[in-house]
Amino acid sequence: MNPIQTTLPGLTLASPLVLASGILGLTASSLARVASLGAGAVTTKSFGVEPRAGHKAPSILPYEHGILNCVGLSNPGVDQMIREIWAYRARSVVPIIASVFGKTVEEFGVVTARALEAEPDMIEANVSCPNVAAEFGVPFGADFGSCAQVTGIVKKNAGRIPVAVKLTVNCPAIGRMAGVCEEHGADVITAINTIGPGMLIATDVRRPVLSNLTGGVSGPAVFPVALRAVWEVRKHTTLPIIGVGGVTTVDHAVQMLMAGATAVGIGSAVHYGGVDVFQTINEGLREFARANGLASLGAVIGTAHSEPPPRGSGA
């Protein structure tokens, strides 16, 4: 038996590690490379109906505690991504998740319907992107009503394909938001996206470094925030969770599982440890299972929610 095997709706993953959206997710070759190195599933970069250039450079900025990015949802559009997903399928049997976004609720439905032409194993609705139809560009995931509408239309158009909704901590209460997603048809919750926005200033020129001035914060600095979010989501829903945010070590991955995640997203860790990070963490997870006498890592999922044994019980 594979001790690190896990399951998501309709899927069996040989590893709980999932390539997070936005990292090496634009081409069949890069996705297949990650799959070959131990990812249990891979996620495409979020794509929309039309190609989008995103923001000009500099748009990615590593710093001592993490990474800032203002890439701006750059993507080649659904037509090209359909071709890339099909090409990936010719190279790998590892499940692939198509991450989609829309400028409006209706556009989420359109891009979902088109993405199904590539027969992905799951659709991930990125509701953390700005709702440009709103007056202030509020993310869909920051509003209960908008998030419910997006979840409903994506689920309707996805048909038999399971749907994950990628949530942001920039919302009134992420646990309650996950509950809303469950009520409107979500099969999985992905938590979280980047946090912020954040800013760094180049002191020599006295200007913000990023071209867009601010950007999302990812990397090790956000891990405690992401872990708390997964904990909150588990308290409010029974849906499987893909825990994402700052996971760079074996211990981080185990903590995510204990907080309630069924699978663990790996993104910025690729910057720090290269693509081999999937193999490294998988090996560490197998060793953790062996050292703790676990036939399956499933035995630790959600265990951090258990009541501690009473003092003096000898347990």
Can you put this structure into words, describing what you see?
It contains nine helices and 16 strands. The protein is α/β, with parallel strands linked by helices and 315 residues long. Strand 1 (6-8) and strand 2 form a beta hairpin. The chain has a single domain (6-304), classed as TIM Barrel (Alpha-Beta Barrel), CATH 3.20.20.70. The strands form four sheets. Strands 3-4-7-8-9-10-15-16 form an eight-stranded parallel beta barrel, surrounded by seven helices. A four-stranded antiparallel beta sheet has the order 5-6-14-11, with no helix packed on it.
Residue runs with pLDDT of under 50 for 5 or more positions: none
Main pleated-sheet profile: 8 strands, parallel, barrel
Number of strands: 16
Question: Which CATH C-level class is it?
Answer: Alpha Beta
Query: How is the largest sheet built, in terms of strand order?
Result: 3-4-7-8-9-10-15-16
At CATH level 3, the topology is TIM Barrel
What fraction of the residues are assigned to beta strands by DSSP?
A: 15-25%
> How many structural domains can be distinguished in the coordinates?
1
User: What is the CATH superfamily?
Assistant: Aldolase class I
Please state the structural category: alpha/beta
Detail the topology: elements first, then pairings.
Blueprint: E1 6-8, E2 11-13, E3 17-19, H1 28-36, E4 41-43, E5 60-63, E6 66-69, H2 78-89, E7 96-100, H3 105-115, E8 122-126, H4 144-158, E9 163-167, H5 174-183, E10 188-191, E11 195-198, E12 201-202, E13 207-208, E14 215-218, H6 223-236, E15 241-243, H7 250-259, E16 263-266, H8 269-273, H9 277-291
Parallel strand pairs: 3-4, 3-16, 4-7, 7-8, 8-9, 9-10, 10-15, 15-16
Antiparallel strand pairs: 1-2, 5-6, 6-14, 11-14, 12-13
Helix pairs in contact: 1-2, 3-4, 4-5, 5-6, 6-7
